[in-house]
Amino acid sequence: MWSTFYIHDDEGRTSGPGGVNPGSAGAPGVMSGAHGGAKRRARTASATASRAGMSESQEGKIKLAFFVAVVGIVLAVLGVGTEFWAELAPSKSFSSNHTCLVAHYGLWKSCVKSLWVADVDPERESCGPADLPGESNCTFFKFFTTGENAVLFQKTTDKKLSTATGLMAIFSLFLMSMGAICITMAISKRVPFFLKPASVCFTLSGILLLLSLIVFHQSVLALLASDHTVPLHHELSWSVSLSACAATLLIIGGILFLLQALPYSPWQKCMSNKDAES
Q1: pTM of the predicted model, to two decimals?
Q2: Residues 6 or more apart from 142 whose CB is under 8 A from it?
Q3: Most exposed: 53, 72, 199, 275, by fewest CB within 10 Å?
Q4: Cα-flanking dihedrals φ and ψ of residue 161, to 5°?
Q5: Which pLDDT tens digit goes with each residue over 112-162?
Q6: CB atoms < 10 A from the CB of 127, how many?
Q7: Please, what is the end-to-end C-alpha distance for the chain in angstroms?
């Protein structure tokens, strides 16, 4: 049998073979285990932070910007889908003494409405406005199907400008939907990576919607210049106002998403630079 001998020094401390203190033999293992546990906890916290990807305050700001963009999307859908972009009204005596005609149209169809002259404001020289009660006859444009122009009060539309307006509006709606998908993924997955493409989509959709308004106004002027035999009073209606507000909100939403995607806050950096200079 083997026996272990312990040596007692002058101060009463006991040491085993090789001078190892048996009472402190487990101390290095305990310290290394505690140090390893701290490392594991730090790695777990780091992994949780990386999975989160954004703070609660940043997520709240993103949701607020998304609300602004959603309002813009709703206004854009209402503006593009309705047919009150422009109103055309001849004089009250164009048709008969009791009724008069007024036309209103949008990107996809036009409507000719018969109004009672008694309902029209006596101080108004032309027929209208189009929101008065009356019988309406609506037809869809054939720009995208057969390529035919429409005729309103002996005036012919410009199919190139009208087609360009419709295509820009459709592509703007497509970009809005792509931006909404990106923001939904960013909020659900808590990944800020999708903020930049969403910012690009919303900003471009707002710019395209504004360009479609400009091109549409040029198409209205081309319609009026096609024939001068029938003088018409024209004005842009409330669908244009909805689209303009929608484009503004979409651009603002895109800028807000871009600010959230930056690795630093421009406002805080500007204030820190001012404090450093002072």
Answers
A1: 0.74
A2: 148, 150
A3: 275
A4: -65, -40
A5: 999 998 888 888 888 888 888 888 899 999 888 888 888 888 899 998 999
A6: 31
A7: 83
Eight-class DSSP state of 91:
B
Q: Does 231 have pLDDT greater than 70?
A: yes
For residue 172, with 0-12 CB atoms within 10 Å meaning exposed, 13-18 middle and 19 or more buried, which class applies? buried
Residue, of 16 and 62, whose pLDDT is higher: 62
Which helix (H) or strand (E) segment is 14 a member of? Answer: strand 14-15
Q: How is residue 79 annotated by DSSP?
A: H
- Quote the CA–CA distance of 139 and 151 in Å, as a whole number: 11
Q: What 3-state DSSP class applies to 95?
A: coil
48: its two tokens: 């949780």
Work out the angle at residue 69's Cα, subtended by the Cα atoms of residues 193 and 189, and round it to the nearest 5 degrees.
30
Phi then psi for residue 134, to 5 deg, are 175, 175
Render the burial of 62-85: b for 16+ CB within 10 Å, e for the rest.
beebbebbeebbebbeebbebbbb
- Which residue in this structure is represented by tokens 């005596």? 93
Cα torsion angle, 142, 221, 204, 187, sign:
negative
Are 238 and 224 a contacting pair, CB within 8 Å?
no
Distance CA 70, CA 181 (A): 12
Q: Long-range contacts: 262-271, Cβ < 8 Å, 24+?
A: none
| C-alpha–C-alpha distance, residues 104 and 212, integer Å | 18
CB 66 within 8 A of CB 72: no
Q: Is the dihedral of CA 182, 187, 190, 192 positive or negative?
A: positive
